[in-house]
Amino acid sequence: MGEKQLFTVKDKVIAVTGGSSGLGLRMVKVLAEHGARVASIARSHDHVDASYQDRDVLQITGDVTSSQDISAAFDQIEQTLGPLSVVFNNAGVAHKARVLDTTPEMFDHMFAVNVAGAFFVAREAARRMIAQGRGGAIINTTSILGERPQKGAAVYSMTKACVTQMTRALALEFAAHDIRVNALSPGWFPTGINEAELAGPAGSFLKGCNPMRRLGDLSDIDGAVLLLASDASRYMTGSIITIDGGHQL
């Protein structure tokens, strides 16, 4: 199989949660540009730019913390685009707060979206892939903070540690059904969650700590996205791909 075919996602039906902003929006764009039939699931698509909306991307409004929304979104994808091949389980939230300032509401919100939401999206995707008998791929978004926490992000780091371990657990359980479960572990990328912070002294500090002396550009995830969505990763499961410019070193 040639390189062009090996990494192709052409005509694959791919869902991306949290697909209206940040890394999720970048995933949607690169997958659509490479010929995938993409559905973006997000609580709102109001701020997505017009050039992106012109692409044939199915935009679905839904909340990953609602099992009804998850099921309805996958029903719509199957009815409109066809059987699901790949899910990028990317939706996530963060509240920046020291431990003593973290409220029960912050704690519950982060675990509801980042952990429970991710788990039940993966479960619903796997259930449908098993019913189809065609296998598939689930790609979770974790973070380097799941392995290397920092002050002010304790609960967020805890949720991402859960996602990392969930990736391995689901990979083990679903391998018999030819469903691969892997994860992307980004380092510091300016997104809607943190771009204001990274534009200031914190961003300069983190650049200085990075062996490559820069923050991530959204396009830096493209190769890993195509790898995990395509047959190029057909013998990979339970893997965590770190994209951080060497920050953890």
TrEMBL record:
Origin superkingdom: Bacteria
Keyword set includes Oxidoreductase: yes
Molecular functions per Gene Ontology: oxidoreductase activity
A Pfam entry, by short name: adh_short_C2
Broad class of enzyme this protein falls into: oxidoreductase
Coiled coil: none
Keywords in alphabetical order: Oxidoreductase
EC number: 1.1.1.-
CDD domains for this protein: SDR_c
Family, as annotated: Belongs to the short-chain dehydrogenases/reductases (SDR) family.
Name assigned to this protein: SDR family NAD(P)-dependent oxidoreductase
Organism of this sequence: Daeguia caeni
